[in-house]
Amino acid sequence: MSVVEIPDGSPFGVENLPYGIFSVDDGRPRVGTRLGDTVIDLSVVLADPVFAAASLNPFMAQGPARWAQVRERLTQLVAGDLPDTALHPAADVRLHLPVEVADYVDFYASEHHASNLGRLFRPDAEPLMPNWKHLPVGYHGRAGTVVVSGTDIVRPCGQRKAPDEPAPSFGPSRRLDIEAELGFLVGVGSPLGDRIGVDEFARHVFGAVLVNDWSARDIQAWEYVPLGPHLGKSFATSISPWVVPLAALEAARVPLPGQDPQPLEYLRGGQDWGLDIEFVVEWNGEQVSRPPYREMYWSPAQMLAHMTVNGASARTGDLFASGTISGPDRHQRGAFIELTWGGKEPVVVKGEERTFLLDGDEVTLSATAPGPNGTRIGFGEVSGTIRPAKENRAQPPG
Amino acid sequence: MSVVEIPDGSPFGVENLPYGIFSVDDGRPRVGTRLGDTVIDLSVVLADPVFAAASLNPFMAQGPARWAQVRERLTQLVAGDLPDTALHPAADVRLHLPVEVADYVDFYASEHHASNLGRLFRPDAEPLMPNWKHLPVGYHGRAGTVVVSGTDIVRPCGQRKAPDEPAPSFGPSRRLDIEAELGFLVGVGSPLGDRIGVDEFARHVFGAVLVNDWSARDIQAWEYVPLGPHLGKSFATSISPWVVPLAALEAARVPLPGQDPQPLEYLRGGQDWGLDIEFVVEWNGEQVSRPPYREMYWSPAQMLAHMTVNGASARTGDLFASGTISGPDRHQRGAFIELTWGGKEPVVVKGEERTFLLDGDEVTLSATAPGPNGTRIGFGEVSGTIRPAKENRAQPPG
Asked: Compositional bias (Basic and acidic residues) at which positions (chains A, B) (predicted)?
């Protein structure tokens, strides 16, 4: 039996206790939490088969009363001796995709981001569409290509057409970008024909992860009218391995910056689910941006209420993400297309002028939030390295 | 032991042999096929646990060699005596959603439909976007709200704003519509970073179903810029319970009507996957349209090649649909917004002038295709009845 030591200032203190799926040499994925630099095997310390599952979905489906009970029990357990068979150095475990993603919806909830993208994609029009301040605009992404941090990102090929080119050409994306986002995981869904009220957020949402919604801007710009982004986004979306429970984010809650006009009734309330989370974007190890989540216009409670107000069911494992987090200042922009203003204003990364991603580049997003008593809660990180495109493809054997 | 009798002209002859999931009084869903007016329990006549599963996914994942083998064996079996325990009158079984849908992508592959919608949604612009003849435009829909034929459709609520209204209002959709489509089910997927060639369609796709992509046009028109349709579509998508295997559609294959300009190389080939399938749209039992699938501009082989050309993985259970099937003539339009030209040219249904769907309305899509030796293959039908919106919602108990 041992007591887990927590380094001073660790973002994984006793106030955090995130959930993830890990394996060691035996290759058997199961549920763990992280405390300091240690991963605790919950299938050893808690007597419930949901913690032996290869995804968090069974535990997430148990609902908020059970989530609170487990969190309380864990808080007690980690204060005392734990069996050595349950403890693994964080550096020794492999972290897996924490959830089986059901549906994935990506929102567009930062006014600064939506305005910047509007100026870049539609320079001759109003940057914000007329609907933008009335509803949280969002669309469905590809659930099957949500991958865990550390998964290599193969540069996508596709159709690209610059405005001055007469016809599209096929090839690797020349404007490969990131989007720094926060993602929310639905634990308890809702049946078809019903809806989730804006004040019911915490009864349904289990926790949050970091999201990098990799984006091929040239593919996206050519394809996206009139049905929205498709192949410019669907090749990969990376998420962080540790799911921070909503309960750990209580001290991070702040009011939204303010909504004008007042939204329709089904979107009133939930304005107290702004979150004071500080993101850091690192490009090849150099910090290039610090997007502030507290600047987001729409709250995640409003996103979930909107997503289901038409009677669409929600399921355990649904992932919905905020859209790119961008603040008012240049160094707060969460996508490189904004940071470099469409590639026209390069940033300096390790002494080189850079615009979009090159093969071999690595991008890491991390984030922290206030915890109780002056502590900080960490989300860990979501990271990915760009691998060269596979332009030519051998026909597989018949 | 009995021989199954097949009524003359049945669309479920020995050339069809579709797969579905059924249950009887015991409530245990398993795999069956339909022959004439009889459902044959494949978990009884074939010795493979995949046929005792509650979805077709395990069988679909076995791949094309196995699909061919099972089809050949079934063809032999149904020519002889079958055990009575395997036989159920079609009228006595309950049909379930045949697949666990992984990702759902909806295309927009009819030139007539895309042109009509362009004229209706963007009257002051070119009806077809510049990208439309270069790539099969598509977007992700909500997989979790794909339902089986017979499921009631609750009229969705949402934000609607007519062009002459100063602000959006919340309420039940006033322009509830259908989209008659053909859907394709992926049996064998492809890994992340790889892609499926345009000539590899039949190695990956298991079969086809009828799709009714219910659409709330007022919600859609207000929300869809710039990220595409979301709540106007996500409340429900109905599919037919019987999956017609690709092998049953060989006699229905026709060349596409023609593509100009010639598409990029990754979309060349697959032009021999046009399909001569005749749809019938019935509104409260009255035939209002006969959309011809052979008029589609893009083939399903091209859709699948496009969907994965960026390295997006495909999974067993992925559903991709054609988009509304509309021919050049008015009586061939597969959506009521086209058939009634935005509601301005009502159609007569059972003696009443009608534009969009009213509560209590029932819509049924059916379709047939040429089979071998002058026979016809039937898809059966996909049907749904509109139920009143739930405008006010009691707060559930805490």
From this structure: 388-398
Q: Using pLDDT thresholds of 50, 70 and 90, give the confidence band for residue A397.
A: very low
Query: CB distance from A102 to chain B under 8 Å?
Result: yes
Would you state the pLDDT for residue B392? 67
Q: A19-96 and A104-387 share one CATH topology?
A: no
Which candidate from A138, A216, A395 shows the least CB-CB separation from B227? A138
Mean pLDDT to the nearest integer, A28-35: 98
Name residues 200-219 of chain B within 8 A of A (Cβ): 200, 203, 216, 219
Hey, where are the domains in chain B? 19-96, 104-387
- Which of chain B's residues have a Cβ under 8 Å away from the Cβ of A108? 227
Decide if A193 and B306 are in contact by the 8 Å CB cutoff: no
Q: With beta carbons under 8 A apart, name residues in chain B contacting A315.
A: 144
pLDDT per residue over A316-369, tens digit each?
999 999 999 999 999 999 999 999 999 999 999 999 999 999 999 999 999 999
Side-chain-facing half-sphere of B218: CA atoms under 13 Å: 24
Residues B314, A135: C-beta atoms closer than 8 Å: no
Phi, psi for B54 (deg, rounded to 5)? -90, 5
A:344-363 residues touching chain B, CB 8 A cutoff: none
Q: Is B153 helix (H, G, I), strand (E, B) or coil?
A: strand
Q: Residue A398 above 60 pLDDT?
A: no
Amino acid at A339: L
3-state SS class at B273: helix
Which residues in B lie closer than 8 A to residue A320 (C-beta atoms)?
Answer: none
Coil/strand/helix, residue B147: strand
Top-level class of domain B19-96:
mainly beta
Instruction: Tell me if chain B has a CB within 8 Å of the CB of A319.
Output: no
Class of the CATH-defined domain A104-387: alpha beta
Q: What is the pLDDT at residue A396?
A: 46
**CB contact, 8 Å: B134 with chain A?**
yes
pLDDT band at A392 (very low <50, low <70, confident <90, very high): low
- Relative to beta strand A215-216, strand A176-177 is antiparallel
The answer to whether residue A113 is catalytic is yes
SS (H, E, C) chain A: CECCCCCCCCCCCCCCCCEEEEECCCCCCEEEEEECCEEEEHHHHCCCHHHHCCCCHHHHCCCHHHHHHHHHHHHHHCCCCECHHHEEEHHHCEEECCCCCCCEEEECCCHHHHHHHHHHHCCCCCCCCCCCCCCCCEEEECHHHEEECCCCEECCEEEECCCCCCCCEEEECCCEECCEEEEEEECCCECCCCCCCCCCHHHHEEEEEEEECCEEHHHHHHHCCCCCCCHHHHCCEEECCCEEEHHHHHHHEECCCCCCCCCCHHHCCCHHHEECCEEEEEECCEEEECCEHHHCCCCHHHHHHHHHCCCCCECCCCEEECCCCCCCCHHHCCCHHHHCCCCCCCEEECCEEECCCCCCCEEEEEEEEECHHHCEEEEEEEEEEEECCCCCCCCCCC
